[in-house]
Each structure stands twice: as C-alpha cells, then as structure tokens.
Amino acid sequence: MIPLLLWILSPHFPWQGPNGEQEILASILFVLASITDGLDGYLARKRGQITTMGMLLDPLADKIMVTAALIALVAYNPDVVKVWIAVVIIGREFLISGLRSIASTEGFTIQASDLGKLKTVVQIVCVVSTILAHHWFEWVFFGVLVIPVKWFAIAAVYFTVVVSTISAIDYFVGFWKQIDHASRDRRAGFVLTRRKGATTPTSH
User: Fold this and answer.
1) What is the CATH number of domain 2-195?
2) Which of 8, 21, 63, 87 could be bridged to 17 by S-S, CB 3.0 to 4.6 A?
3) pLDDT truncated to tens, each residue of the chain (204 aa)?
4) How far are the Cα atoms of 45, 125, 166 from residue 159, in angstroms, in the given order?
C-alpha cells in the first residue's frame, strides 16, 4: 500500500476534488494499512504462529509505512509536519530497528512495550489528522460544534514526538538490561568452563 499512498499524496494524483476527496482517500488507505498490520499480529498471537522472523518483519513493515507517510507529509503539509519533526520520529524508528537487529544477533528479541503500542496509535492519529488538515482548517457540525482540524493535527504531531522519544528511551533501557544479562551469563559460562577444564594437582 505504500506506493499507492505516496501516489495519492503526490501533486500528480488526478482525483483532487474540491470536497477533499484526495485527503479522504489517503486517510482511508492509511487506516486500512494500519488495521491490517494490527490484525496480522493479533492472528499470529491467537493461532500461536509467532516467530522470530515475524517479530522482526512486522514492526519493520509498520516503520516503513510511517516513514513513507511522514516524508510525503513534509512536502504535502509543511505547515504541520516540519522537517525536524520527521527526522526525530524517523530517527527513532531506525534506532529501534537497529536495537532489534543487535538483539537478534545476541539470541533474544525485543517485544513491543505498552509505550510502543501507544506510539503506534498516536502515529496513526498524527498522520491521518495531518492529511485531513491539508484541506480542512476546522469542521463545523450543526453550526455549533467546531472541531479545529489543523490545531488538532499540530497537537497530535508534537504529542507523537514526545511519545516516540519516551518509548525510544524505554526500548533502550530494556535492550540494555537484556544485553547486560546476556553478558553476565557468558562470563559465568566462561568461568564454569575454566573451572571444569582446570587440572587438579597430584600428590606424590
């Protein structure tokens, strides 16, 4: 769905109606992609089909989708998504991917924490609201209820930055504990091997 989303958000998309058809279509596509990503993980857990490869690839697919959307939104709605914001969020995704790769080489995996799951939900709201804010400044219902779409999108973007940063710290702390535990096990195994291999003195 990533190439299709980028095509919809590009200025070359032919269906750019006056009623926000482009924004609605892009929002629906991104929400569908996010739902299928979550559904995939749910079915894997329910059916007991969780694998190490799946735990590595599933977050990677999510990160590629969010990265592509943010890069497109920097050009699509620069008033809401600044360049530095995209760099911080995308940099966080690269950091977590790097930690997962190192963890896999060390023989363990880093599972998604509650903060990581919250970050995913916040990112979905951030991307969708930013897409909609490209066409609408606010929504007015029945002449009374006013929803400030643009300001809601700006708030969602900055909240995403905060949650992404905090969750990155949380992941790093968990990773460091796992690495420290693994290194202790290796040192203990090395000492135990040396003790078993040591020669005992003979008496004459």
Assistant:
1) 1.20.120.1760
2) 21
3) 888 999 998 888 887 778 888 899 999 999 998 888 778 878 888 888 878 777 777 777 878 888 899 999 999 999 899 999 999 999 988 888 777 777 777 666 666 667 777 888 898 999 999 999 988 887 777 777 778 889 999 999 999 999 989 988 888 887 787 776 666 655 555 455 555 555 555 544
4) 29, 10, 11
